[in-house]
Amino acid sequence: MIPGTDRFNGPAGDSPASKPPPRDPGAYEPRGPLPPDPPPENPPPQRNEVGHPLFRVCFYLGTIYVLMNLVGLLALGVYSAVKHPDQGVEGFAALAENLGTLGLLLVFALSAPVAFVWTLFFRRTLQQRTFSSLGFRRRRWLSRSAVGWVAGVVLSGAVLLAGIVAGVYEPHLPTEPVRWSLLLALCLGFVVQGATEEIIVRGYAQKNMVEWRGATRSFGWILVFPSAVFSFAHISNPEVGPVPVANTFLIGLALGALVLAQGDLWAAIGFHAGWNFGLAGVWSLPVSGIAPEGWLVVETNEGLPDWARLAFGGAYGPEGGLVVTVLVVLAISILLPAAMDRWPRDRWGAGE
Q: What is the pTM (predicted TM-score) of this model?
């Protein structure tokens, strides 16, 4: 074969493969660089968030803890000065020790607006995000809250029933007329208390961890960190001990997984409020070491063996017992896979 020739078509330059395609006279030939692509119709918002997410959350939690306690102490001080002007510090201390469940809820309700405003400031001003993105979707909010509330009341009643069967609790019907105003006040108070705690821990703290580490599904930051904060917030409660602290941490994990699975806070707020109201307002059992003011009269039998106190929490209430430990671990085993099933759809709302 002669170099420079094609076996079938003669010279290499005459090969059909080497010839350029015929030019279309109507084809557009750009002159110079191509114009840039048009911007998308709905571009993602450009946010200039202040500070590192972890530092911002820690600063938020520390400041909101201080502010809420200052408001509560101020409210107690004003009430003590008006009610007992001659008792001074002694009157203030006696008032703080004998508030009861309703008094504590009232103080908490006075400090709740501070928590709301402070959270709104961090979310809107420092992060340039909406408050609703913390988990307040309007879709099915009433049904999810109601189902969560009923589940909390029913589950707390199941714990009471287990204690009655075990011989730990002895219930009695009230001999006085039902104080419906007290029950209503307790119900509303626990709604405010449960909603505020959920906004702070599962709303702001957990949501920021999702936005920071959601793409990697880092449960250490997304679930463990907020649950540790939730447990630490109860460490100064009366009658606290190792089991109550561990149970509060596990309850935080379960509520956090519920929020991830549902995509909002409604069910968690409902369950939190219903559980506390069921224990203290209906079944008259202690809530996190706080004495109850409920409808049913429940006596704890004296001389209980150690296993009974360990199982049902003693003076701290059922949240300090191993029965609740088993229930919460079972709940986590159900809710955590549900949360993982939702992650591929929207990464737990990390882009909201």
A: 0.83
